[in-house]
Phosphoribosylformimino-5-aminoimidazole carboxamide ribotide isomerase (Lysinibacillus parviboronicapiens), 258 residues
Amino acid sequence: MEQLEFRPCIDLHDGKVKQIVGSTLGHEDQEVVENFISTHSSSYYAKMFAKDQLTGGHVIMLGSGNEEAAFAALSTYPGGLQVGGGINAKNAQQYIDAGASHVIVTSFIFHNGMLDLVRLEQLVTAVGKEHLVIDLSCRMRDGKWFVVTDKWTKFSDFEVNADSIAYIESFCDELLIHAVDVEGKKDGMQESLVRDLAAWTTIPTTYAGGVHSLDDLKKFQDIANGKLHVTIGSALSIFGGDLLYSDVVNYCKKGGVL
């Protein structure tokens, strides 16, 4: 098995570092469920991840008003973080110039419920395939996985399967996939999605959603068979959870030894 990489995250909402239940975003009739609001800046976390030599972490801007905090994190750890949320062909390069290793996109390329190849090719032209991460965050419908967009409120017609992943991989350097139905709930991973992604992906792919203990992490590693990396948010001690951040870092650095 390949070494399991822990990919940390800095989620930004209203300019602050937060952990929220992502599926509660974007609904006019529903308040956003916040698991944690940090008293620390985005730079504080970027410095921590740099010190622990964690690469490929992602800074996600959840709505507008988070650009300043995102730029602060990127400048603190240049080359060590990816950035997503509101990325398009016009603004992508400025984030690369600011220190992001990659930009992460979903809604810009999954436009009006469909994969927009024109927009995808514009992005590849703007920053290069080597700087692009495609986020295929998905939910199950009728026994199949479909990409959801617009703060995870809308189903696209893009089914996530072996063929579609093989196709989309040709446009990007990495994949990021949130299991939307379990993300932020600290209630266990979506094992069937982990199993599917391990079978289907051939480029670096990070799974997010529900991992909340070292036992979970071991189970994830066993199911993924070394094929996937993992991000953990709300469950981590640095974000108000019970799972010690240092334990996760050490577990992954030691190649999965509890």
Observations:
- The chain has a mean pLDDT of 91.
- Residues 5 and 196 are 19 Å apart (CA to CA).
- The chain has one domain: 9-253.
